[in-house]
Structure formats: structure tokens, C-alpha cells
Amino acid sequence: MKNISILVTLFLFTVTLNAQVPVPAEPQSQPIVLTGGTAHLGTGEIVENAVIVFDEGKITAVGSAGTSYPSGAEVIDIEGQHIYPSFILMNSIVGLSEVSSIRAMNDEEEEGSINPNVRSVISYNTDSENIPTFRFNGILLAESAPEGGIISGTSSVMEMEGWNWEDACHTMDMGMHVHWPSRTRRNFDYSTFTVTEEKNKNYEKYVTDIKGHFADAKAYMDAEDKTTNLKMEAMKGLFTGDMVLFVHARAAKEMIESLTFAQSLGIPKIVLVGGSDAVHISSYLADHEIPIVIPPTHSLPDRTDQAIDLPYSLPNILTEAGVKVVLSHEDMLANARNLPFYAGTAAAYGMDKEEALKLITINAAEALGIEDQVGTIEVGKDATLFVSQGDALDIRGNVLSYAFISGKKVVLPNKQQALYDRYSEKYGHTR
Amino acid sequence: MKIRSIPVMLLASICLFQAYGQETFPRNDVKDERIEAFAFTNAIIYTDAENQLAGATLLIRDGKIEQVGQSIDIPAGYQVRDLDGKYIYPGLIDIYTNYGMPEVKRPGRSGWTSREQIDPTTKGPYSANDAIKSHFMAVEEFTIDEKEAEAFRKLGFGTVLSFRPDGIARGTGAVVTLGDGSENKHIIKDQATAHYSFNRGSSTQYYPRSMMGYISLLRQTYLDAEWYNELDEKPFKDVSLESWIASQSLPQIFDARNWMNTLRADKVGDEFGVQYVIKSGGNEYQRIAEVKGTNASLIIPVSFPDAYDVEDPIDADRVAYEDMLHWELAPTNPAVLSENGVTFALTTSGLKKKEHFFANVRKAIEFGLDETVALKSLTTIPASLLQIEDQVGTIAQGKIANFIITDRPLFDHGLTIHENWIQGKGYVITRESEPDHAGTYTLQLDGADYVMKISGEGNAQKVKLVLNDTSELNIGVQFEQPLVSFQVKLSKDDAPHRLSGWSTEDGWRGTGQTPDGAWFDWEASMVEEEEMASKDDESEDEEDTRDVGNVVYPFLAYGIEELPEQKTFLIKNTTVWTNEEQGILENTDVLISNGKISQIGKDLSASGAEIIDGSGKHLTPGIVDEHTHIAGGGNEVATNSAMVRIGDQVTSEDINIYRSLAGGVTTAQVLHGSANPIGGQSAIIKLKWGENPEGLQIPGADGFIKFALGENVKRSRNSNSIRYPQTRMGVEQVYVDAFTNAREYEKAWANYNAFTPDEKEDHALPRRDLADEAILEILNEERFITCHSYVQSEINMLMKVADQFDFRINTFTHILEGYKVADKMKEHGVAASTFSDWWNYKWEVRYAIPYNAAIMHREGVLTGINSDDANMGRRLNQEAAKAIKYGGISEEEALKMVTLNPAIMLHLDDRIGSVKVGKDADLVLWTDHPLSVYARAEKTLIEGAVYFDLEEDQERRNELQVERNRLVQKMLDAKKSGKRTQKAKSREYLEVHCESVLGEENHSHH
């Protein structure tokens, strides 16, 4: 009986849920001009009193006051406001997981440990209620990536709006996520109530396994006469440069081991997904021009001895060392909407604000291999940008008045604002 | 063919004399009773740690000491042993062993996803909780374990206390000697001690599973025992309680494992008039004043950690400072205890290998422990703690003949224990040690002469062959006086000549085989005796014990040697967010003295005040976190856990205290988790980094208790759960039941207390119940509810239950659907402490909206924003700013949501929460607008003392690097000098939040 009642509840809820996700916007039908605002281009440059023009989803002009624009364009005066390129959320499970505590709502982790052939875009739910809330804070693009195992699968970059996954997909199957094992194992010590490390006895075995899979994939690609193998097929793009290899490694030595391995295979695009241990190997990352995706600045230090503000200053430390840094989110997906403030915190701890902005815009675009299309406000790129009433990296300033995804003027309010309205009205509150 | 086994027996310790049967045992031979009388003469006898007799005689007979002294006539019929040059000591006592005890089965892990074992599984009329095993008696289960006995005897131990380490109450221990034969002869005290711990052992019963739960179970059992004992007519039979009662007069030994648990155990003892002897962990030096303050006698291990292998700097970086410093300071622990007048016994317990015992005691001596104290801690002190000083511990007439014979003073390097006598029976430990052969010899071998050198002492003698070019080659050697064998390589790459021989006047002679297998005769004779060069060897081994690091409080990175002082501060020319009617004051000064805010105004001056320039900065009240689990939060799992107290498990050793200070937090409520409808009592702390656990807690603060609603309490994520309640309907009944019972409980006691003494005789004494008492405090408005809550239906429900019992809920915490019933909340008068923007992590938070705080605030509900975890806890100012972004609350009101409003919720607004003359000087000076993402706490003050300072933090980082490097260099030296090392590894303190349950890692949230 219990199971049946849960099914019924789920069904009913799905109906109301669909009703609450805003209707996707129509494609851009006329040129749009934003005038009078301060444009944060994402290149490090700020244009005061800017004129930004876009048409058919692409940016056609970026300039200061007086820049010409086509007649018949929709002109939006945003004086006193700020324009930013879309914030880009990397390495997330957006669209794959809705309510993590409910098994039925999780689609980010497939059975087995070697799953190069599973593709996040297939699970991607455009009607996820998280999506409008991301948009609301300036996240208009996100990488939706599978999790778990050793090779988790293939990720895609998604626009934070669309009728279905095909519509919403920005760049399909552009990344493969590999989780390098750890040399240590965590061991709970009851007497001190702490977790200590133990040697991971299976480390060599796991590493040999991973190496074997990659070697097989490479041989498969070169072989002429072969039986089709889905897993091997899925890995081809890594060797041709059509796909980015995201190597997840948390400790310094594992980072070096995994990256040198990936490089030895001649994989052209490699990105490290790591953490504070990268400070030990920053020269390696700089020398080999490997970008790193790091956890939110809003994290605790990994170890007691670390500087208490290390997560806050890590983006600056690594950037200063010549490494390209991307800020991402971890854990509870709904909280990923705070991505802008992770960058704001990096600015509070040593970075120039425009440099901090890059952590969640152009640096992410470069790591994803889509820097020609997004990441900055430049002519020819997607008109995926937004207008904020204040400093979008600071909480009080991050209040969006407009957001455009490939030129489409998207709806910002969502279920949360609807509920706010409903109950303010119920109580007769004046706001 | 038995002969072949003799050499093996010689290596093991063997009994010098046969054991003779006990009178009551069946005989299978003719009667064979012998005189067991021995005289030991010419020895240096340590009758106890402080007294020694040279050239003395010891007479023992029938297992007892007959006489000891310097001029004693030896009666006829005694076997005389001349011990010229040897030493006799009392046999050592290990007060903390599980010798001869049955093995304790460790239960498998269980937690959020396993079926709860609600009832006990112990068969028979025993305790209602499987962790109460007070009925266990070591004497009944004791069996001689010859292998273990021998390991103890080798170390000079003759007597041990043995108990079974299972349960929170573990029953009684027995004192036994370490002889062989039948158990009957070796029990010298059968009901010697009663044992307790903070470890539920083999119990798989689901309650308790937290430190505070263990303490609560102990408390309740003390009360139950008193009650049971008082009753003339017992309502039920409880053998565990009866045993508990019977064993109260014995020495009470508590297994605490570290200094913090030692303080906790002592506190429990104080509540019930019990002074435990406490087995601590060897880190007491980390809080020696507090440990001393317990007045407890301690049992201390000498299990000093090995140095970490820090050769690789990346690996070394993972090792925590506290582990490195503990490596250095652990050997000072016995000396520190002794210098502070703490009485302690040493134990082998905790050593990975027992045979390291003497080396480690010697190490403690090198680090300042007085040898006399060391000996006492192994003889008279344990004897006295066990109340067996009339039987063992010294060498005196009438005592049991337990003693050891050694070749030198007990704690000297190169000690050889020759014999260990137990109850008048001698066990050979090491035969006569090998004579010293140090010197230069001529080795005639296979027709040629060689120079052979021997150095060192006893069993550590080394032999070398000196070649023509004066280089040396080691010679393999096995001495076994009078036999010897050498393996001699004549040049580096040769196979050895193998020599076997016997001692002569000035060396050895014998026979041997060349690498080719040819036999030859050989001879070695001394040409020059060597002066004792061994001193040099020892000094090489000696560590420089003077240069060790200082203890820091807490014992972690960024710990401090001394607590910050309250000072008179004048903060000049700053922007003051008063949270009072004056609002935000520009260019204003604030004077702080005696820990209080003493003046607010323009152009203030105060003589002797330390000036803090506040220009361009913002001063706000310290942040108050209504909901955290740092510094000792956690979960107990009984449906009604009202009896457990976070205050019992508050810890000072949490880096998150310091990290939170850096986020401007000065006060926090440390809450019980959300595993049950009725959780435990909370602790309210000030974040005084460096204080001890008691010192963190705010004295006189009102008592609060955690309640919880929704998915967690009905165990939604555990499909195996059988724990009541499983629905929100059941949750309500849990409350109605608890409050109803509490009223009944009150009535029962009121009735009983109203009786005259005579009437009381005729009425049964009611049982005290700590859960009922806590619930009753709520009804009587002496304790206040903070309730974890999400959906509107249950929020409404709890207010209705409170109305029914005529009291008010104090606070709903998390309260994510508070916006839906804000009007009802306003009417009830309950406060709300919410997350700013969390939602969608579980089913019941699908309708959580970040406008929640704004709506509740506008509706007139006292609203705060809380953290729940250490991460968010250090950015609550930013969380407050979200009430501006989502809902347009004014900046002043937003700041109040993390300062004044939670202070009001905690009933502390008369002391904290605003910048007002007379309030505690708990203040934060921010570098920027306090609600900005760019603001950093530059200074965080608590009661007029600076607990966090940005600049000082930088200095501490630098100092930490210097300190770490010093320790790394020292560890490298240790490894180089051949000391044992362990792999570098990190230590991570689990982050605790609402759903953390002991013994499992739970990564899901709230």
C-alpha cells in the first residue's frame, strides 16, 4: 500500500510541477539594444555607459555611448545597471537530480564503474525546478555532468531554458568525467571521533584498470577491423579533441599521476577537477596550461592546519601562479544558485573583481571548450547575458532585471516568486 | 625425543619449580608435598620505591614473604640463592588489563538505514539496556592464558587487575596473579573493582549512541539503582541493578581514554558522590589544570606515538599539527602529571606491542618522570588504588612473595629481568646475561691470524673483524654462554667461515667450516680489554628532551598559549550598527571596559584605553547563531531523548570555533540533531577559542531543548525502520504522550512529597525519570523548545499541542514553510530561525522559498537566520543579506536577523545582540559594509577580549609554519636515528549537522 501511495503522490506532483516552470521564451525576433549600463565584458574590461546590440541570438555590437544600432531594434535603457555575460555553472548535476533524498528523482549515477557511453543529456529534465532559480541569479548556462564510478559518462552544456533537452542543449557530449582513485582510504576512528587516512590497498589495481580502459580505447580507435563496442566508441572524442577530459583528483600526487597519464595518451583537452591540494602542483598546471575546476569558495578548509580562509583565497593563489581557475559548486544542487557569490568571495580575498568574474564566465567557457561562443560579451558570441541592478557578485546587488539566452528574453520569476506573491497577498503585506 | 624441545623452553620463561596440587583437587599419584622455602642473599632489595637495602636477605615460604632485612639468619631447610650484584624489586602491578577474559564481540555498524533494536537482547533478568552489564563478574569468567601471562611476566609484572571491556557498566574486575596452573590459586581479590566506560561495547541496542547518551544512561542508572535499593518490595527483578548496587563500595574505575572524557567522567561521578579512578589516554598534559582539578587518580598508558615519516613534503603536509605536537609531547605526559601532583598508575594498556613497555617508561623518565614515581606507579599506587596494599606492592613480611630479580636498577638501559617470582614460585625470564667480552682478540682461523674486536654489553655485543687496511667487517654472532657461534667474512664479498665453539679462560676455541665445507679448528684469545665505551652509544640514543614545543589551547593549529585578556578598548570613528533605536551611527566611538560596552558617542576619550581605529569600517554586535552543531553537537536516537544534554559533550577542540570567529560569530546555540521528535538539551556557548569545554558555555543561560518534525524523525530514508513514529500522526502522539506523562510524573511526586514520613513508609517511592523531568521543565517554562520544522501542517500541529498544554513554543528552527502559517505563528508568539535560501534537497522542502524570512518578519514574527553547519556558520552576515535580495528587508533589520533577533530567541538580549551601554562587549569590526560579500571580520571581540584579529591570524599562520617545520626536522632526525615511524596521514574532524549519527558518515543534509 505504501508504495502505491508514493506513486500517486509523485504523479500528482509532476503535474503541478510542470505548471509552475515558466514557459520558455520565443526566439529573438528583432534586434535588442541595451543602453546606458555598465558592461562587465568578462575580458577584464568594463565599458561604462555601454551599448550592447544583439540580433538573431548573437552579439552584433559592443561599444560605448554612440555606438550605432539598427533601426527598429528594441532599445532597453538600463542606466545605472550592470551587464554581465552568463555565469556558467560547471560540473553540476543540473537536470539530472531533483530531490536528492528521493531515489526516484536521481538520474546522475549509472550502475557500474566504467560508463563512458552514458550521456547526461538523455536524463536532462528541462522542467527541473532548480533551473529557473539558477537563471534568476544569472546562471544561464551549465554543464550537466554524470557522477560516480571511475568513468562517469559524458556531459553536455545546457542552456537554462528550453522545451526539451534537444532545445536546451548548447553543446552536446562535450566532456567525459573520469574519477581518479585516491591513494588513501578514509577510516573512522571511534576513539577520537575523527577520520584518519589509511593506505588504499586497491590503488594500484584501480589505476591499472583505468589505464587499461584508455589504452583499449586508443587501440580501438586505430583498429580497422573491429566489432562495435559502445564504451570504446564513446571515448573516441577524447583523442580527436572533440571532447574534453575532466580528470577528478583531490590529492596532489593523484593529480600529477592522472594528468601525466592523460597527457601521455595525447589527449588534447584536459581539465583537472581538484581542490586545495593543487597549490602544491600549480607550476605543473601552469606549465601544461591545464585549467582547474575547484570547489566553491564557500567551503571549509580540507584540513585543520590550512589557513582558515584558504577556500576563499584559493582562486587567487592559483591564478597568481598562472593557472586558469574555474569555480564550481558541490553538494546540494539547489544551492548552486549562489555561484556568483563564490566569485564575489574570491574578490574579497585578493582578486580584482573583473578577474573574479572570469572564474565563472570565460574561464569556464574555456574549460568547456566553448570560449568561441560564450564566456564574454564580444561581437559574434551568443547573446547569453543578463542585466543586474547592482554588483551581481554581491548578494544585495544581484537583482536581475533582464536575462537573455541566445537572444531570447527569458522569464525570470518562477515558483518561488509566485509563492512570495501569493502569501504577501494573503497577509496584505506591502513590500 | 623430548630433549629437542628443551632449548625452546629455555627461551620461553619457565617455572623453576613444580606446581603442587591444591588440597581439594583429585590426586593421581602419591602425595608429593615439599618445602617451598627460599632464601635470597646479598641482593640489593628495593622493598618499595623509596627504600632499598644493600646486601640484604629475603626469606620466602609457602608463597609469602617471611622476612626481609640486612642481617637475617637463614633457618635450616631453605634453598639459598646468592644474588650478589643483583637487584630485587616488588613484582609490578598492571591495574588495567583484560588478562584471561573472554573476547568481546564487536557489533557491526548500524545507523540511519538499519532496523532499530529497541529492546535488550541479553537473556535473563538483566538491565533494560544491553550496555549495562554490571552483573558481569570477571572472577567467574577468568581463565589462565599462559601466553599472555608469560608476556606480562617478562616485563616484571606479577599481579594484574583483569576486567572485561564490554558495556557502559562493565561489572566487576578481579585481581589475579600471573602464575600458571589452576585459576583457583591466582585470584587474590575476586570483587576488586567496578568498571564503567563511554563505549557501549557489544550492545546493538539502538540507544545510546552518543557521548551525551552514554552519560545520560549512566545518570539514569545511578538514579534507578538508588530507587531500586530504597524499595522494600521490588516491582521487578533486575540482577544488573542489584550488582550495580552491590559493587558501589568497590573502587570505581572509568575508561575515559582522553583528557576530555576524563573531565566528563569525573563530572558524572561528582553528581553521584563517586570518585572514579580514571583510565585516561595519555594526553592529559593538554589540559593539565583541568585534569588536576578532578582530584581523580588516573591510570595512564605509555603508548607514545611514532614519528611520522615526513620525508616527502607533500605527504608531510597532510599531517595535522596536533598529531605532530602530540608525538613530541606525549612522552612528557607522566612527568607533567607528576609535577602537578596527580596520582597515577602506569599500564601496558594501549601499547601496540607490550614489549615496548620498558623502553617507553624509560622515555618518560628521560622526559622528566622521576624514577621513584615511575616505580610507585607500578607497585604501591596500583596496590593502593585496588585496596590490596596489604598483599602486594612492596617487599614486606606477610605479603605475597611477588618480586623480580634484575641485573641492574629497574629503569636502567640494558635491563635484564632474570626471574619473576609469583606467589613464591620463580619463573626464569632471562638466563644469566652474557658476560661482557668487550676487547680486542686475536682470531686464529684456518691457519691465519686476524684481529677481532668486540664492543657493547650484554646481549647487544657486536663483533667486528679488523682487516689489514683497518677497515672493519661485521661478524655475525650468537652468544649462549658457554657456547658461541661466529660467521666470519674474510673480505666483503666472501661467503662466511662458520665457527662454533666454547668459552676458554681468555676467549673461545672451537671448530668451523670454510665456505668450501672443509672443517678446521679455531681459537680466539683476548689481547686487550676494552674500556667501557658503551656510554657513547647511549648518549647517541638520548634525545634532547629540553627543547619541546609549548602546549596550545585548544590543542590544534591556531591554538593559543594564553587566553586573550579583557582590555579597555576605544574604537574610534566608525560606523556603528547599534540595533537600537539610534539605528546606524556614523563617525562614532565605542568604549569598552571590563568586558562591557561602557560608552557610545562622538569624540570619546578614556585614559589607558587601547585605541582601535574604526574609520572606514563598520562595528556590529557579534553574530549569534541560533542553530549550530559545531563544538560538540550530535544526535541521540531515542524517540524521546529529552534526557540527553549537549552540554555533556561540548568540545573545545574544534577548529570551527576559530573559523566561525573569523566570520564574526560570538555566540551560538549548539543543538542536538533532528533524529527524533524530542531531541536533547542544547548548550549555548560563546566562541572563546582556547577555553575549556565548561568555559565555553554561558553560565546562567536559560535551558533549551531540540524538538524535530518531519522526514528525519519519521526515519523517511530508512526503509527498514521500525521506530515509532513513522508518520506525522505518530509524531503528534509522541508529544501528547510526553507532556501527559510529565504532568502525571509531577503529580506522582507531588503526592509522594506531601506524605508524612510515616505515610511514606506505606507508599512506594516514585522513580525519577530524567526525560520526564526535562519535559516537565518545558511545561513549567523552565526549558524552551527550539523545533526543527519544515512543512506547515506540522508547524501548526506543534503549536496546537503547546496550546493544549498551556505553554508556548519558543522557536521554530529551519521553519522553511513558516511563511505559510506566519499569521498563526505570530499569534502563538513563536520565533522563527530559518535558512536563508535552502530548498529542494528533500521532499518536505519543495516549497521552501528564500522570501520566507521576509514574509515572517513582515507578519511580525521574530525572525532570525541560522546556519546548521560550520561552513555557512562563518558567513551568516551574507546569509542575512539574502533577506534583502529576496524580499527587500531593510539592511538594519537584515543584520538583526543574525544578531539581536537570535539573541532574543535565546533569552540573552539583556546581555548581547546590540551595541548598547551595559551589554557584553561582543563586537565585530568589519572591513566593509557588514552585509557585503566583500566584508571581512577584522576583529571579533567577546566580553572585551579580542578572540580574532586578521593581523594576528596572519602571524599565527607564520608561526604555525615555523612550528610545523621544527617538528618536521625533528621527525626527520628521529627517522635517521633509526626510530620507528608511521606513514604520514591526515586527521579530519567530522562535520556535524542535524543528521549526524555516531558511527556513520552521512553526507546528506538537514
How would you sum up this structure, described in words?
The complex is a heterodimer of chains A (431) and B (1006). Chain A has 431 residues and is α/β, with parallel strands linked by helices. Chain A contains 13 helices and 18 strands. In chain A, the strands form three sheets. In chain A, strands 1, 2, 3, 4, 5, 16, 17 and 18 form an eight-stranded mixed beta sheet that branches. In chain A, strands 6-7-8-9-12-13-14-15 form an eight-stranded mixed beta sheet, with helices on both faces. In chain A, strands 10-11 form a two-stranded antiparallel ribbon. In chain A, helix 5 packs across helix 6 and helix 9 (310-320) crosses helix 10 (339-348). The longest helix of chain A is centred in the middle third of the chain and has 20 residues, at 203-222. Chain A is globular. Among the domains of chain B are: 439-541, Lipocalin; 561-621 and 913-949, Urease, subunit C, domain 1; 623-726 and 785-910, TIM Barrel (Alpha-Beta Barrel). Chain B is built from 26 helices and 45 strands. In chain B, strands 1, 2, 3, 4, 5, 6, 16, 17 and 18 form a nine-stranded mixed beta sheet that branches. Chain B has an eight-stranded mixed beta sheet with strand order 7-8-9-10-11-12-13-15. An eight-stranded antiparallel β-barrel of chain B has the order 19-20-21-22-23-24-25-26. In chain B, helix 17 packs across helix 19 (770-779) and helix 17 (728-754) packs parallel to helix 20. Chain B is globular, with a radius of gyration of 35 Å. Mean pLDDT of chain B is 93; it is low at 1-13, 532-541 and 999-1005. At the A-B interface, strand 10, strand 11, helix 10 and helix 13 of A face helix 15, helix 22, helix 23, helix 26 and strand 45 of B.
CATH superfamily label of the domain at 623-726 and 785-910 in chain B: Metal-dependent hydrolases
Largest sheet of chain A: 8 strands, mixed
Measured by DSSP, the beta-strand proportion of chain B falls in 25-35%
Q: What's the alpha carbon Rg of chain A, rounded to whole Å?
A: 23 Å
At CATH level 2, the architecture of the largest domain in chain A is Alpha-Beta Barrel
Question: CATH H level of the largest domain in chain A: which superfamily?
Answer: Metal-dependent hydrolases
* Class by SSE composition of chain B: alpha/beta
Q: Compute the number of structural domains of chain A.
A: 2
> Largest inter-chain interface?
A-B, 64 and 78 residues
CATH topology category name of the domain at 623-726 and 785-910 in chain B: TIM Barrel
CATH architecture of the domain at 623-726 and 785-910 in chain B: Alpha-Beta Barrel
Oligomer: heterodimer
Largest sheet of chain B: 9 strands, mixed
CATH class of the largest domain in chain A: Alpha Beta
> Helical content of chain B, roughly?
10-25%
Structural class of chain A: alpha/beta
**Distance between the terminal alpha carbons of chain A, to the nearest Å?**
46 Å
The outline of chain B comes out as globular
Q: If helices are DSSP runs of H or I spanning 4 or more residues, what is the number of helices of chain B?
A: 26
CATH topology value of the largest domain in chain A: TIM Barrel
